[in-house]
UniProtKB/TrEMBL annotation:
Name this polypeptide is given: Cell division transport system permease protein
One cellular component (GO) term of this entry: plasma membrane
Protein topology in the membrane: Multi-pass membrane protein
Keywords carried by this UniProt record: Cell cycle, Cell division, Cell membrane, Membrane, Transmembrane, Transmembrane helix
Domain ABC3 transporter permease C-terminal: 178-295
Biological process per Gene Ontology, one example term: cell division
Residues passing through the membrane, by range: 31-55, 172-195, 201-219, 231-249, 269-291
Pfam families: FtsX (PF02687)
Domain of life of the source: Bacteria
Listed InterPro entries: ABC3_permease_C (IPR003838), FtsX (IPR004513)
Compartments (UniProt record): Cell membrane
Length: 299
C-alpha cells in the first residue's frame, strides 16, 4: 500500500468499517490467537534473554576462576596447602589465590550432605580458589609445577564444565528466538485464515459494493484496518497477562533453581512493549495479502 493508503487506514472510515462484521467467529479467532500467541511470545523473550544472561555469567565467572584440590594425609595437608599457595603467588597470570575455610567448604557440601556433615572427621580435600588476571595463566605449565612440588594437588580450570554449560545456555537462547519466529508465523496464519473466512462470507456484500463504485483498495482497506486493530487489541491483552505472569515468577535470589531469574532486566523491558505493534504489523501484512488474493478471485 502507498503512504496515502496507510494514512487513510490510520484515520479509519466508518462507512468502510461497516463492510466487516464487528463480531462473529473471525473476530473471536483473531483476538484469541493474537492474545495467546503474544502471551507465549513474552515467555519466549524472557527465556531467550535469561539464557543469554546465563551464558554470559557462566562464561565470565568460570573463565576467570579455577580450583586447586589438595588430597593429602591430614598431617601433610597443611604443609602442601602452604606450598601450593606459595607456588601460586609466584605464577604469572594468577591475580590471587586463597584456601577456602572449613565453613566455606561445609557450605559447598551442604546441598548434598546436609548441614550436619562432620567435616573435621572426614578426609575432605582442601580447596584453593584461584582467580586469574586479564592475561591468564599457563594451565599446562602450572600442572607440571604442581606435580613436581605439590604431589597431592589437582588443578581444575573449569574448561570441561564451562563449555557445555555455555553451549547449553546459547542453545536455549536460540530456541527462544526460533519460538518467537514460529509464534509470529502462527499469528500470520491464523489472521490469514480469519480474513479469508470473513472475505468469503461477505462475497455478496463485496459484489454490491463493486456495483456502486467501490474499488478493491477501498474494500481491502476496510478488512485490513479491522483485522489489524483486532490483532493489536488481542496482542496487548496477551502481553499484559504475560508480563504479570513473568513478574509472579520467582526471582533469582529466592531459590537456586535453573529457571529462576526468568524475567526482564533493565532496558530489556522494552521488548514486551514491541510485541503488540509487531503482531499488528504481521496481521496487517497477512490481511492485505489475503484481501488481494480473495478479491482477485472474486473479480
Amino acid at each position: 500500500m502507498s503512504l496515502g493508503s496507510l494514512r487513510a487506514l490510520a484515520r479509519g472510515d466508518a462507512a468502510a468499517d461497516r463492510v466487516v462484521p464487528p463480531t462473529g467467529f473471525t473476530a473471536r479467532l483473531t483476538l484469541f490467537a493474537s492474545a495467546a500467541m503474544c502471551f507465549l511470545a513474552v515467555f519466549a523473550l524472557a527465556l531467550s534473554l535469561a539464557a543469554g544472561r546465563l551464558a554470559s555469567s557462566w562464561g565470565d565467572e568460570l573463565a576467570r576462576s579455577s580450583t586447586l584440590r589438595i588430597s593429602a594425609p591430614s598431617g601433610e595437608q597443611a604443609a602442601q596447602t602452604a606450598a601450593a599457595l606459595r607456588l601460586l603467588e609466584q605464577t604469572p597470570g594468577v591475580a590471587r589465590a586463597r584456601a577456602l575455610t572449613e565453613a566455606e567448604q561445609q557450605a559447598l557440601l551442604e546441598p548434598w550432605f546436609g548441614p550436619d556433615l562432620p567435616l573435621a572427621n572426614l578426609p575432605v580435600p582442601q580447596l584453593i580458589e584461584i582467580v586469574e588476571d586479564a592475561t591468564g595463566y599457563d594451565a599446562a605449565g602450572l600442572r607440571l609445577r604442581l606435580q613436581a612440588e605439590v604431589p597431592g594437588a589437582v588443578l581444575d580450570d573449569h574448561t570441561r564444565w564451562r563449555r557445555p554449560l555455555v553451549a547449553a545456555a546459547s542453545g536455549l537462547r536460540l530456541l527462544g528466538w526460533v519460538s518467537i519466529l514460529l509464534i509470529a508465523g502462527t499469528v500470520g496464519a491464523m489472521v490469514t485464515l480469519a480474513a479469508n473466512a470473513a472475505l468469503a462470507a461477505n462475497a455478496q456484500v463485496i459484489a454490491v459494493l463493486r456495483l456502486v463504485g467501490a474499488t478493491d483498495a477501498y474494500i481491502a482497506r476496510a478488512f485490513v484496518r479491522r483485522f489489524t486493530l483486532r490483532a493489536l487489541t488481542g496482542a496487548a491483552a496477551g502481553v499484559a497477562l504475560g508480563v504479570v505472569a513473568v513478574l509472579l515468577m520467582p526471582g533469582a535470589g529466592s531459590t537456586a533453581g535453573f529457571l529462576t531469574g526468568l524475567t526482564f532486566v533493565g532496558w530489556h523491558w522494552i521488548f514486551p512493549l514491541l510485541v503488540p505493534p509487531l503482531a499488528a504489523a504481521v496481521a496487517f501484512a497477512a490481511t492485505a495479502a489475503a484481501a488481494r488474493r480473495v478479491l482477485g478471485g472474486l473479480s
